[in-house]
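Late entry, written up from scratch paper. The run itself happened at the end of the previous shift, but nothing got recorded in the book at the time, so transcribing now.
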Amino acid sequence: MTAFVILAASPGVLLLVLGLGAAHALEPDHIATMKTMASKREYLKFSLGHGLGFAMVAIPIILLFGFVRVLEVAGDLIGLGVGVLLLVEEISGKEFEVKGGGMGVAQGALALTPSKVLVAVLAAEAGLLLGSVYIALFIVISSSLMYVLAIALTYVPTRASKVVGIAVALATIAFVLYTMLR
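Output as recorded:
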């Protein structure tokens, strides 16, 4: 009953958090990373690891970014590297398999995105209990949608897979460079 009262008290913010989770799941670097994985199990490890990485370090890293810019750059470089890796993979025809768990935690912990920052700010302003609910909902929505999207990508016809992979790689590189340069 207490959780219902808490959620009912802020339906607008709750909807915002759910929307941010959905938008976060669709970011190109997540799609690129999962395109380099070979199994549903790796997709799941990545999705859960990404949520875990965000949960473990969201607030401390956001606070540190004001003082330690190198952490944000490290997250951007991981995303950029994955985009380049996927592009090389698609153009060369060679497969490079990325393991999901470690990569998910690294991207979840280090890659700073507007959706993560906004959820962390909303959570900090809402207090410990409601803020924890916001963080948990964001993680559940984004992790679930990442996993579903990765599975959906396995149904891309073989003849279109290379084109989709190259498009995802280029979108990832552009997305990460844009976030680094802004």
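The two ends are 44 Å apart (CA to CA).
(Scratch paper discarded after transcription.)
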